[in-house]
Each structure stands twice: as C-alpha cells, then as structure tokens.
Design goal:
- The protein is mostly beta strands.
- It has one domain.
- 8% of the residues lie in helices and 57% in strands.
- The chain has a six-stranded antiparallel beta barrel with strand order 1-2-3-6-5-4.
- The radius of gyration is 15 Å and the shape is globular.
C-alpha cells in the first residue's frame, strides 16, 4: 500500500531540510534542491553527453501556478541562486511537484 503525505505535513518536513525559495511572487516557502549528473545523450550504453540536472521539489499547494504548466520558462530563486524552470513533474498524489531547472 502506498502512503502519501498529507498536505499539512509537508511544511514541517521542508522546514527541517529545505532551502528558501522565491517563485511566482511567493517568497516565504522552502523547497528541496538537488544537483545530479544526468545523461542526455547515450549510444550503445555509453554516455556521450553528461550534464548537471537541477531539480527543485516544492509543495504544490503553496504555489498556485504549479497546478498547470504555468511554471515553465519562469524564473525561480533557490537559496539565493536564480534558475529557469524547464519542466514540471507532479509527483504521485500531486502534493509535491518537481521542477527541472537550468541556470
């Protein structure tokens, strides 16, 4: 059985290990940022192009524009660094959203 977090539980989790996020006029929230290597071009199982993937995980209900694809191409400031949102991925029950960003 899959267990989902309740919307009211998420701010407490983000308060523990989140970083400040400013997005779409909202400046008092936190999110989780992750920087990982991502293979964007591969042939015969060999990585040809590897780049840095920047993902920001946010509470969906804290940012109204996350409900639709209105987030794409907008600027987001994460822990003082400005990025551009390239894609939006809603997670499981929709309580959390991952933004794929570039700088």
């Amino acid at each position: 059985m899959t267990t989902f977090y309740r919307d009211a539980d998420i701010p407490a989790m983000l308060a523990d290990f989140g970083v400040p996020v400013a997005f779409d006029g909202i400046t008092d929230q936190k999110g989780i940022v992750d920087y990982v290597d991502s293979v964007t071009l591969k042939e015969n199982g060999i990585a040809g192009v590897v780049n840095k993937a920047i993902t920001v995980q946010l509470q969906t209900s804290a940012f109204p524009s996350l409900v639709a694809n209105n987030a794409i191409q907008k600027r987001i400031v994460v822990d003082g660094v400005t990025y551009t949102v390239r894609d939006r991925l809603q997670q499981t029950d929709g309580a959390m959203t991952h933004l794929l960003c570039t700088n």
